[in-house]
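Quick log. Single chain, no ligands specified.
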Amino acid sequence: MIWGVGPVFLLPTASNDLLGGEKWGLGPTAVLLKQESGWTYGMLANHIWSVAGTSSRPAISSTFLQPFLSFTTKSYTTYGVNTESTYSWKTNNSTPWSVPINLSVTQLLKVGNQRFTLQAGARYWADSPDAGAHGWGARFAVTFLFPK
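-> predicted structure:
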């Protein structure tokens, strides 16, 4: 079992008022995971309370839950499923949950001495506030790796 605890910070970095709460925040975070026989599973969780920021904007009290499950093959292909769910404790919405379900496939590659991963995935919003995201989405990522 692998575990970790520490702080989580919220910085007011949104480029548009509609994209952020204009608040500074902090709280606790923890992760617990297990790896065995190609499987990785566990949970990342945190909670953020706003501590400063624009007084005309509502306070933030938000819980983040990310259970995850993945399987990595001998050819370094990883199949994963997770959710990045958020619960807003201070909301006027009838639905305080945002619950995207993420499915992904990631491949580890090497060109010359450079290692990197390519990832493709689909996202379905199982629940979200009325003004939140709905339906399907996609995710693509390239991550360069620099091991010692």
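The mean pLDDT is 94.
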